[in-house]
Amino acid sequence: MTADHFRFVDFTEHPFVLLVDAEGNAELHGDDQICKIKAAAILSVIARDLVAEHGPRRCSPSPEAPQWERPDEPLIPHAGTLDREAQLWTDGTGHVWNLALPWQDNAGSTWQWYGSLDGQGAPLMRSNDWPEPQPLDALRFLRGPMSPVYRGGAA
């Protein structure tokens, strides 16, 4: 599983997610969806197991350690589909977006669908931080990753 590359997390299925990048920076998402004590207990078990597995040796990545780069995930124009009644849009890569929820970009702007599509069939999203609506596929590419917002905070 360590060689897999994940692009999209369904926060309905996984409401508590820890993301760690190649430099060791961590983001905890969904900590408002789980009891803080339970989250801390889960993380302490993970920490204990990792420390035990590492052993007494020094911590240094080998020079041969691969540098993971995220390959572009091109969207196929006109390949998205919209279920207007359920407010679900499937983009050209097969990811399903719940348009009933607001979405937050990596800069902290929150975007909401207002019912319109662009000329290629992508949902047009509005934000108080931007004067013009933007297509969701462009937002995902330029300002991603995008995270759904639950109960007033990013998941």
What keywords describe this structure?
alpha+beta; six-stranded antiparallel beta sheet; single chain; 17% helix; 155 residues
List the helices and strands and how they pair.
Elements: E1 17-20, E2 26-29, H1 36-54, E3 81-83, E4 88-90, E5 96-98, E6 103-104, E7 110-117, E8 123-126, E9 134-135, H2 136-143, E10 147-150, E11 153-154
Antiparallel strand pairs: 1-2, 3-4, 4-5, 6-7, 6-10, 7-8, 8-9, 10-11
What does this protein structure show overall?
The chain is of the alpha+beta class and 155 residues long. It has helices at 36-54, 136-143; strands spanning 17-20, 26-29, 81-83, 88-90, 96-98, 103-104, 110-117, 123-126, 134-135, 147-150, 153-154. The strands form 3 sheets. The protein has a 6-stranded antiparallel β-sheet. Strands 3-4-5 form a 3-stranded antiparallel β-sheet, with no helix packed on it. Strand 7 (110-117) and strand 8 form a beta hairpin. It is elongated, with a radius of gyration of 18 Å.
| Strand arrangement across the biggest beta sheet | 9-8-7-6-10-11
Structural class: alpha+beta
Q: What is the share of helical residues? A: 10-25%
Q: What is the end-to-end distance? A: 23 Å
User: Which stretches are low in confidence, meaning pLDDT under 50 for 5 or more residues running?
Assistant: none
Describe the global form.
elongated
Average pLDDT score: 78
Computed over alpha carbons, the radius of gyration is: 18 Å
Largest β sheet strand count, sense and barrel closure: 6 strands, antiparallel
Helix-strand pattern: EEHEEEEEEEHEE
Bin the strand percentage. Answer: 25-35%
Helix run count: 2
What is the tally of beta strands?
11
